[in-house]
Amino acid sequence: MNKNFDFKNATIGSLVVGPLQTNCYVIGCKITKEAAIIDAGGNGPGLLALAEELGFTIVKILQTHAHIDHVAALSEIKDATHAPIFMHPDDLPMYENATQMGKMFGYDIAPLPPLDHHLEDGQILEVGKLKAEVWLLPGHSPGSVAFYFRDLEVALSGDVLFAGSMGRVDLPFGSPADMNKSLSRLKNDMPPSTLILSGHGPETTMEMEIKRNPFLNQGE
Ligand SMILES: [Zn+2]
Ligand SMILES: [Zn+2]
Fold first, then answer.
1. Residue 184 CA, ligand 2 centroid: distance in Å
2. Ligand that comes closest to the CA of residue 174
3. How many of the other CB atoms lie within 10 Å of CB of 177?
4. Which of 18, 19, 168, 206 has an alpha carbon within 20 to 30 A of 188's alpha carbon?
5. Ligand closest to CA 72
6. Residues flanking ion ligand 1, Cβ below 5 Å
7. Which helix (H) or strand (E) holds 208?
8. If you measure from the C-alpha of residue 31 to the centroid of ligand 2, how many angstroms do you get, rounded to a whole number?
9. What does the pLDDT look like over 181-218, one tens digit per residue?
10. Is the pLDDT of residue 220 over 60?
11. pLDDT score, position 143
């Protein structure tokens, strides 16, 4: 969607990258001009240019999960910014095999740099004056997380929740049972007014998904 979302104290820029049309985001604080890249999924130069265009300096690289379409530009972004990489350790088996997996799917992925920080559920991350809560939402992958900026009423949901759909659960390490729990948690605990920015496809809101998303309303 290559679209910018503007808030009083923050801007979120997005860029669609790679053969799987992955949404990567730059979220920055207007006060300190510090920003995070959320999912270095491809087109490293494009992501860096987006940050520059918005006047931001990248201080963190936050990964929603380790699928290849979300990590393909990680080495490049790390080299250019020296920013620390944050990811949940439950996705390490995929992270460590990304180069090999990439070959199978037509991605040329340089060996990934080691993680700098392990995310955990409930952790609060700072991006300038912005605060993100980490929600562990396994199912699409064991270490899938959403970054929830409560003050902005925005959640970057990775491949857990999409507009009208959900992430695949049939890939290696996927779990339909875990996904059901993660979707219930979103439905019950994420305020309806929350803007959802997904790993693929257009933006939506929690309210809209509660109304129309069949995967949020199954088994009840
Ligand atoms: Zn994925
Ligand atoms: Zn994806």
1. 21
2. 1
3. 10
4. 168
5. 2
6. 67, 159
7. helix 206-212
8. 31
9. 999 999 999 999 999 999 999 999 999 999 999 999 87
10. no
11. 98
Which ligand sits closest to the CA of 169?
1
Ligand 1 centre to CA of 59 (Å) is 24
- What is the predicted pLDDT for the residue at 110? 87
Ligand nearest to the CA of 171: 1
DSSP states along 183-203: HHHHHHHS-TT-EEEESBS--
The ligand placed nearest to the CA atom of residue 198 is: 2
pLDDT on residue 108: 86
Tokens 């920003």 — which residue? Answer: 35
Sorted by sequence, the CB contacts under 8 Å of residue 97 that are 6+ apart come out as none
16 CA distance to ligand 2 middle (Å) = 11
Say if CB 125 and CB 86 are below 8 A apart: yes
Indicate the residue type of 48.
L
Ligand nearest to the CA of 22: 2
The pLDDT of residue 54:
97
**CA 113 and chain centroid, separation:** 18
For residue 139, which ligand has an atom nearest its CA? 1
Amino acid at 78: K
For residue 60, how many other CB atoms are within 10 A of its CB?
A: 22
70 CA to middle of ligand 1, Å? 7
- Helix residue ranges per DSSP H, the chain: 44-53, 68-71, 74-81, 92-96, 98-104, 176-189, 206-212
Gap between the Cα atoms of 156 and 22, Å rounded = 13
Q: Which of 26, 145, 36, 132 is nearest to 83 (CA)?
A: 36
Q: According to the model, what pLDDT value does residue 1 have?
A: 58
